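Could someone model aspartic acid with this protein?
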Amino acid sequence: MLIVQKYGGTSMGDPDRIRNVARRALLARKAGHDVVVVVSAMSGETNRLLKLTSEIARRPSQREQDVVVSTGEQVTVGLLALAIQELKGKSRSFLGHQVRILTDSAFANARIRSIDDTNLRASLRKKEIAVVAGFQGIDEQGSITTLGRGGSDTTAVALAAALKADACEIYTDVDGVYTTDPRICDRARKLDRVSYEEMLELASLGSKVLQIRSVEFAMKYKVPLWVKSSFTDDPGTLVTEEDKAMENVLVSGIAVTRDESRFVIRNVPDKPGIAARVFGALADADIVVDVIVQTPAHEDARTDMAFTVGRLDTEKTRELVRKIGKQIGAGKVEHEEGIAKVSIVGVGMRNHAGVAARMFQVLADEGVNIRVISTSEIKISCLIDEKYAELAVRALHTAFALDRTETKKG
Ligand code: ADP
Ligand code: ASP
Ligand code: MG
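Reply:
Sure, complex below.
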């Protein structure tokens, strides 16, 4: 078998932990598998490097910032290759450009275009454990790029797809994908299996255990994806294709994002081209808009348009929307910070009625006011006041029967 393993920042956090990773990779090698290991920088390192660049330049060039932040993974590939050699294993480290992980030129958020597997295959033929730097690639011009925060997950899954690996194992500091972030809810339960589609929704809606693009890759190329702990021998969670059993579960998981700001543009003329104008301008300014809701037109052919953006984009959005609001003859612009989005996700929703009503009732019973609702086939999201986020997650977790039954170990 060919196995791609990925170890995150906590798993690579200090020399002892790196030795632990080396032992695990060697176990797979000794079991007769070809092994490619993708690693993240030591935990905290990427943040430290980002802070350094911001101390030198208020608005650093993204190209140079990528040169700096990609170095965290250069350190860990070298250390892990050494640790494996110290244990008498064969190993070789690879940076993104040495594999040739070719990306576009969207610095800080680049997308992988292609992977040349020649060098990795040669290394595997020599029975080496190939240790590859996560998070980084190279563009057509030869500049170093990075794949966005959490991007090592995507490096691993993309390599697994390119090498047609039999499995991709993401080792982290929890032993699988849980019904909700175990740091928020101590009754969260580990899932044995979750569908690609549900995982994609959970990741997009705030469960940062896997980077969104890694799940997209896994789904597209049908890579069997395991999420496991590097500290235990628990089998973890398999992210895989949907099957009948998954549909019997109404809600598989709950995700939450905080730190959003909600905008409402009142009395927007209800005519073609207006939404395109507003959201086109926001897109041109590189502002990522999340939930968008437009009310049906009032009698005077005017509507209200509500949407959310990340807190950091609040000021920029406010200026821009005020300007455009005037140009299109809209009414006043309101905004509020401190908004959270709580979402329930499950493929079972497709065939079951009443899930939304149940969610709204649970929030009502807790006295939580819902600001905006948005739904898709397998998820329902509610915007609420951030201070109720954890309360809402816990109440929904219990109401949809996700709580663990046994008591927590350790
Ligand atoms: P790594 O450094 O290994 O990539 P991350 O911090 O990126 O690790 O991801 C693991 C973290 O994801 C966990 O510590 C956990 O707090 C968080 N998390 C959020 N949602 C979930 C979830 N549904 N299941 C498991 N972990 C989750
Ligand atoms: N080191 C990078 C980050 O902290 C990539 C990763 O860990 O996946 O975002
Ligand atoms: Mg991560």
